[in-house]
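Bit of a strange request maybe. I'm writing a small parser for structure token strings and I need a real example to test against, not something I typed by hand. Could someone generate the tokens for this chain?
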Amino acid sequence: MKIDYVKSQISNVRQELIDHQAFTWVDDLNKARIFMESHVWAVWDFMVLLKGLQRQLTCVDTYWVPTGNPEVRRLINEIVFGEESDIDQNGNAVSHFELYVQAMVEAGANTQPILTFIEELKLGVDPKIALERSAAPEGSKKFVLATLDVVERGHAHEIAAVFTFGREDLIPDMFIEIVKNLKEAFPTELSLFTYYLERHIEIDGDLHGQLAERMVLELCADNKNHWEQALALSSAALRARIQLWTSVIQEHQDVCLAL
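Reply from user aminoacidic:
Good idea to test on real output. This should exercise your parser:
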């Protein structure tokens, strides 16, 4: 069981996700704000997966020792560099999460829930407790909790599979339609959001997706159980993303009913 087999087994649910109506549903500024207010939580927990992998696969202690497979170390560190220390449209260093929050501010989306959550984490509050008492949309809470469960189990091949097939591998296909629509309709109000999406498409489509697949290949190697677990978790991650996008549209309907 290898990468191609996993891809073939998750192809149907992956296509279901790519075809989700949320990607064409975001056609005005209000819907974009609602989308961003839910999606920013997935941007954060993407970083959790990434840093979870870095902690598992490299040495992050003060007193450094060689840790793990050098090839895998190089792969994860390259991805961390791109996600945690990319550049904004002006050439300034920024993480993709921080860039996303900046895009939310420009669009007029509500950043208070996610920023309050981040401040709680800085104070040492348990992430699940901070998430539960946050003002995050319910669909986002469920999505993030599923990710935290995977990370807390601490199995590198599982985290890598969710990262690769449930997240990193999907970004080019997931966002291309949104980019096309938003560029035409809102060239000024959503310029940072468009830049963020285009940057993800450029980096993840050309480089990070390939690196992530190589990482899964190295971590699962010839272990059949690892491949089976990778397949199961990849499929579950895709289903969770479908539920997240469905919840975004439901959130819009709830807002409309409240008006």
